[in-house]
TrEMBL record:
Keywords: Coiled coil, Nucleus, Ribosome biogenesis. Residues 302-315 have a biased composition (Basic residues). Required for the processing of the 27S pre-rRNA. Residues 9-20 have a biased composition (Low complexity). It comes from Acipenser ruthenus. One of its GO terms (cellular component) is nuclear periphery. This is Putative rRNA-processing protein EBP2. Belongs to the EBP2 family.
C-alpha cells in the first residue's frame, strides 16, 4: 500500500515536470518566431454566400396565394409631387428622384408623400367595393381592458377616496381637539386672573379695615420680576454691585431716597388705637375759642346771596 502511494506521488510529479517543460518549450518557440497563427487555434472557414434566384422564386410561388385585392390591400406607388413647388416652377429632389438616404428630412418626406399617394389610390377602390372607410357615429369599439380589470380599478379609486375622507375627518377631529384645548387653557387663565384679583381685593379690604399692616400684595409683581431676572445675570450686574454713581448719590443727598408714597396717610391699627392726641373739648367745640368758617378766630360771617344782591342794588 505504501509502495503504491509513493509511485502515485512520483507519477504526479513527473507529469507536473512534463507540463512545465512543455510550457517552457512553447515559450521558447514563441520567442524564436516558430509559432504562427492558426497552428494552435482552429480557424473556421467562411461560409460561401449563394444567391439562388431561381430557388427563391420557386419558394415564393409555393407559398404565394392568389387572393383578391380586398383581402391583400397592397399597393405599390410613387410619391406625390410637391404641388407648391410645381406651381412655382421649381423641381424638388423628390420629383427628380435624387434622394439622399442619410438625410432624415428628405427620407421622411418621401415616406409621407408615398403614403399620400397610396391613400388617394386606395380610397376609390374601397368605395368601388362598397367598403366603408369612416367610423359610424353609433360604433362602439371593444374595450382593450376587461370588465374585471376596470372593476378592480374602480375599487382602488373608491379605496383612495375613502382613505382621503378618513384623513380629512381625522384632521377635522384634531382641529376640534385643539380648539377645545385652547378654550380650556383660555378658561384656566381667566379663572386664575379672577382668583388673583379676588385675593388682591380681599387683601386690600383687610388692610383698609386695619386687620393687617402688610402690603405684600402690592409688591407681588415686582418680586416675580426680580425672581425671573435673578436666574440670568444682566450686563449691569457688576455695576449694581459697585453701588450708585456720584450723580445718583448727589441727587439722593439733595432730594432724599424716595420711598413709598402711596398709602402713606392711611390709618393703621396702631394709629387708630392711639388716643394720646385726642382732646374732647376741642372736638366738641367747648374750648372757648370761636373759630369761624375760615378757620380764624373772630372772623366775620359772609352775608348770603340775597343779602349781597340787595346791598348791590342799594349802592
Amino acid at each position: 500500500m505504501e509502495d503504491f502511494e509513493e509511485e502515485s506521488v512520483s507519477g504526479s510529479e513527473s507529469e507536473g515536470n512534463d507540463s512545465v517543460m512543455s510550457d517552457g518549450e512553447l515559450q521558447e518557440a514563441f520567442a524564436k518566431g516558430l509559432l504562427k497563427p492558426g497552428l494552435n487555434i482552429p480557424l473556421e472557414a467562411r461560409k460561401k454566400a449563394v444567391n439562388n434566384v431561381e430557388g427563391l422564386k420557386q419558394c415564393l410561388a409555393d407559398f404565394k396565394k392568389d387572393l383578391a385585392w380586398v383581402e391583400r390591400l397592397d399597393l405599390t406607388s410613387r410619391p406625390l409631387p410637391d404641388i407648391v413647388a410645381k406651381a412655382d416652377g421649381k423641381l424638388t429632389t423628390l420629383d427628380s428622384g435624387e434622394i439622399q438616404a442619410e438625410d432624415d428630412f428628405q427620407r421622411e418626406m418621401y415616406f409621407y408623400r408615398q403614403a399620400q399617394a397610396a391613400v388617394l389610390e386606395a380610397l376609390p377602390r374601397l368605395k368601388k367595393f362598397n367598403i366603408s372607410t369612416k367610423r359610424p357615429e353609433d360604433y362602439f369599439a371593444e374595450m382593450a381592458k376587461t370588465d374585471h380589470h376596470m372593476q378592480k380599478a374602480r375599487g382602488i379609486t373608491k379605496l383612495m377616496a375613502k382613505q382621503a375622507s378618513m384623513e380629512k375627518s381625522e384632521k377635522a377631529k384634531q382641529l376640534r381637539e385643539l380648539r377645545k384645548y385652547g378654550k380650556k387653557v383660555q378658561t384656566d387663565v381667566l379663572q386664575k386672573r379672577q382668583k388673583d384679583k379676588k385675593a388682591m381685593m380681599t387683601a386690600v379690604k383687610k388692610y383698609q379695615k386695619g386687620m393687617t399692616d402688610k402690603l405684600d400684595f402690592m409688591d407681588g409683581d415686582q418680586e416675580k420680576g426680580k425672581k425671573g431676572a435673578s436666574g440670568a445675570a444682566g450686563p449691569n450686574a457688576a455695576k449694581k454691585k459697585r453701588g450708585p454713581n456720584a450723580k445718583r448719590q448727589y441727587k439722593d443727598q439733595r432730594f432724599g431716597f424716595g420711598g413709598k408714597k402711596r398709602g402713606s396717610k392711611w390709618n393703621t391699627k396702631e394709629s387708630h388705637d392711639d388716643m394720646s392726641g385726642f382732646r374732647s373739648k376741642a372736638a366738641h367745640g367747648k374750648s372757648g375759642k370761636n373759630f369761624g368758617k375760615g378757620g380764624k378766630q373772630g372772623a366775620s360771617k359772609r352775608p348770603g346771596k340775597n343779602a349781597r344782591k340787595k346791598m348791590k342794588n342799594r349802592s
